Amino acid sequence: MTDQSSSTYGWHSGLGISLHQKIRDDLKHSMTNRDDAEKSAIRQVISEFPKLTVPLTLESGKKSSRPKSGDEITDDDILDIIRGLVKSEKTVLELTKKESSDYLQILEKYLPQMASREEISQWIAGNIDLGQFKSPMQAMGSVMKHFGKLADGNVVKSILQNLAES
């Protein structure tokens, strides 16, 4: 039963639904199916929503902020929350010397697919003239600007270091 329901969780931009709504729907689904791991992971993401704020300037001139309403929360805001939770979970797993956890796998279903090492290498070969740089590492900014959050900076760094050595 878990395998069938787990395929319904997760999100990608092609679903035609906002990530905020998908998370709410997945929470309802996990509650009706009594899927405690999914329910607790989704609740953890939702518990981070009040940290999303909008800056305000009060009439007195003081700067303040207020939490974002449900309509103001963007997919990027939620993806940043999930990335933060994934990063902290990976740190915990590293300290406990574990490979993965159910919580981490659930969170990663909501993140967009990262660019593979091969895709990054092909893009660098086709779009960057490494001769214009003193060191291939100087191309890091251009590569990261193209891929954004879809590329792991450590992977890009290792690819560029390999190019520098060869």
Explain what you see.
- The radius of gyration is 20 Å and the shape is globular.
- It has helices spanning about 1-5, 20-30, 35-45, 75-95, 100-110, 115-125, 140-145, 155-165; strands at about 55, 65.
- Helix 3 (about 35-45) crosses helix 5.
- The model is unreliable at about 1-5 (pLDDT under 50).
- It has 2 domains: about 1-110, no CATH class; about 115-165.
- The chain is mainly α.
- About 15% of the residues are buried.
- Strands 1-2 form a two-stranded antiparallel sheet.
- The protein contains 8 helices and 2 strands.
- The longest helix has 21 residues, at about 75-95.
- Helix content is about 55%, strand content about 5%.
What brief labels describe this structure?
166 residues, mainly alpha, two-stranded antiparallel sheet, disordered N terminus
- Average pLDDT confidence is 84
Q: Major beta sheet, specifics?
A: 2 strands, antiparallel
Task: Assess the beta-strand content as a share of residues.
Answer: 5-15%
Q: Nearest-angstrom radius of gyration?
A: 20 Å
Order of helices and strands: HHHEEHHHHH
| Distinct helical segment count | 8
Helix share bin: 40-55%
**Total tally of structural domains:** 2
Count of individual beta strands: 2
Give the neighbour order of strands across the main sheet. 1-2
SS class: mainly alpha
Distance between the amino and carboxyl termini: 51 Å
Dominant shape: globular
Extract low-pLDDT stretches.
Answer: 1-7
